[in-house]
Sequence to fold (183 residues):
Amino acid sequence: MSEPVIERVLFTTQQVEERIAEVAAEISAKYSGRELKLIAVLKGSVFFLTALARELTVPVKIDFLAISSFANQRGAPGMVRIAKDLDDSIEGEDVILVEDIVDTGFTTRYLLQHLAAREPNSLAICTLLDRTPRRIVQVPIDYRCFEIPDRFVVGFGLDYRQLYRNLKYIAVLNLEAPASSSR
Ligand code: IMP
Ligand code: MG
Fold:
């Protein structure tokens, strides 16, 4: 099987950083005078969470959970389970679920239900990327940095087989490209 190749840069490091700063300013204004709890799912959203947190001007706490997604018996996506739960209670807190990408929406919807059951004071969603063409279940997205086309992307936390998370930009990965050289 050939290795996928980076086809093109979708958003440069500067574009990503500037847009995150804009969204952080919006969030800081909205939550002015309050304390925020940012929650992200390991591992993809960690890069975005830390970048966002550094730009926020309100007091911020962070917490993480881990999930595993798997196909159901007919091979359709949408089954998610908690592999590592939050460390602390979120009861009465102002929570933002920080996502790397909302794609079909199954993961986000599951997480929203999981978090809402813990009775936070408020619960919002902030995603780095929003790929609406593939949405199957609707989720209320409060803050989004970028909308993207229906292509597989990597970088800024997003992976292909656990690689490329550390790219400082967001790129389209061509999963069908023939190998340019044999190994
Ligand atoms: P959803 O449940 O279909 O919305 O899937 C969301 C999860 O799928 C994300 O948190 C990512 O881990 C993964 N994912 C979806 N699209 C991409 C992509 O283009 N690149 C890397 N990971 C992706
Ligand atoms: Mg992933």
